[in-house]
Structures are given as structure tokens and as C-alpha cells.
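Re: uridine-diphosphate-N-acetylglucosamine structure - here you go.
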Amino acid sequence: MERILIVGGAGYIGSHVQKQLLDEGFHVIVYDDLSSGDIINVLPGADFVKASILDKSALKDVMSSGIDAVIHLAAKKAVGESMINPSLYAENNISGSLNILNAMVENNVKNIVFSSSAAVYGMPQYCPIDENHPISPINYYGYTKFAIEENMNWFSQLGKLNYAALRYFNAVGYDASGAIRGKERNPQNLLPIIMEVATGKREKLSIFGNDYDTPDGTCIRDYIHVSDLAKAHSLALKYLMNKKQSLTVNLGTGMGTSVKEIVDATEKIIGKKLNYDFAPRRPGDPAKLTANAHLAQKLLNWSPDYTCIEDIIQTVWNLEL
Ligand code: UD1
């Protein structure tokens, strides 16, 4: 069976990708420095290398061990932090990713699936956003993702490798069987914050803005279940290995859910009120961001299994029960 290197495989999305590939019988090697990932996310059956993507010699060692494809999800992802400390993002997200590409080329590893983001588009000019939407990131985090897409594109044109750039919208949820239990430390995203409020770890949720041009005034996002994302990684991997062609696709459900709707749905699931207030808008937040993911459906034959936000939130709440 093919040997797949999952860089960042102990992280939130990486661990779900790991589970998907193990379930399908792939040989999985998780490479992670555990800076934000968690060792409990390394599943039985996976090999584990604890190292950083800034460590070129560790990358070289693992790439020379006979790797058929790389899935790269190791990155810093706090949008606000990227605007305050861009060097951290330049180092980890750009230099670290270039180290991976260079180690692949040096060892003749031909396929990479890359964790990109809807943040490459910047402020939406129309919604749902398709892959032809202009690229114009409004935060440095989004820029780092696009910088790596461009590099992969060059490497691909120069015949060095094939890539799948997967532009995620808002990843949420947990594996429904409960196999992944590692929670992110110091979460910055909406649903993990809501869960901290629900369990009393955090006093309250601040909803950033209730005066947007949306039906209830709060921002609308496209929340996609992480197990659906994981499935797309496996399909992208097979596309690369079989077709030997590169691709760039959005991954989202196409459905928009507002912050208030997420709060209301969570209250129903947990059976109690959440403590929240309305705070000023967060700079750089578009009112509405949803995906047109028809290309992923067409090229990868992918579609999300989870289409109901309550079902998605339930998989997160299950971790607390
Ligand atoms: C952003 C990025 C996304 C990235 C993700 C990872 C953009 C356009 N999107 O998503 O690419 O992968 O971060 O961190 O840059 N909210 C509150 N209160 C809170 C937290 C969030 O009201 O305490 C609201 C936000 O205003 C937003 C929604 O919840 O409307 C989701 O926010 P968040 O989870 O931070 O993700 P995005 O900012 O949408």
C-alpha cells in the first residue's frame, strides 16, 4: 500500500485526514512538531515522526524513506496573529512549506495535497465564491497560503511535482465515532469558543457585529464538517496519483449559516442558554462567505455528507458528554 506522509497530521484537520487514510488501508506517517497538534491525535497504526518543517534534515530523512505522496497541513492559522507577527507566518507557513517542496523534489516525491484556504480570495466580490474569483487576500495568513499555491504551480509547470490545493471554507465538527479527541489549545475559531462557553471554561462569547447586511445582522459562513474535508483529501490524493495532473478546488457545502444561527442551534443541542453579547465588528470580516464547490464535485466526485448544521455541532458536543 502507498506510504503517505501527513505533515501536521496531529492537528485538528490532519488527525481527521489520518483517520480517513488509515480506514482506507494506506500506510500513514504523521510528521508533526506538536506545537499545536496533540500526540493523542496520532492514531494506532500510524507511524510518528516528531519534527518541525523548519528542520530540513528531518524532512530529508523522512522523504528519503520511500514516500508516495505528501499531505501538508502544518501551518499557523490565526488570522489576527498573522497581522501582528507576520514573521512567524513567513517562517512557518512560507519557509516551512518551501522546505517541504524542496525535500520532495530532492527525493523525487511527486504528489502533494496542500491545505489552502478561502482566505486567499479576500473580500468576496460575489457569493458563492468559485475558483475563478479574483485572488486578493486581506490578511497575511491568506497571503501565505496563496504564496505556496503559486510556488506549487511553478514547481508543477517545471515538471517537478503535481499538487492539489484545497481551499477550505470554515472547518468544524469532530469524527462521529469519537476516534479524535484532541482539542485545540487556546482556540480562536467560533465553534471551539462556543464549546468553551458551554462547558464553563470561558465566561462568554462575543459575537463580532450584529449590524451586517444579513438577515439577522451577524456574519454568514460556510461551515464544512472536518470528516468531509478528510474525504476530499483522500480523493485528491487518488486524483494526483492516477491522473498525474494538478488541481485547485474550493471545499465548502455552499450553505451559509450565521453566527446567531450557530448560537441558537448550539443552545438547542446542549439544552441551555449560552452567555453571549454583541461586540463591535472584527476588522477584515466579510458579511458573507460561502463556497461554490462544483469543481470539487466534478473533478473529485466529492460532495459533503454533512449538510445540516445541527448534526455538525452535535459531533463537537459529543466530545463533552
Ligand atoms: C478565518 C479564515 C479562514 C481560516 C480560519 C482559521 C478568512 C476569510 N477566513 O475564518 O480562512 O481558515 O479563520 O482560523 O480569513 N466570531 C464571533 N466571535 C468569536 C469568534 C468568531 O462572532 O469569538 C465570528 C466571526 O466574526 C465569523 C465567524 O464567527 O463571522 C467565524 O469566525 P472564525 O471561526 O474565526 O473563522 P473565519 O474568520 O470565518
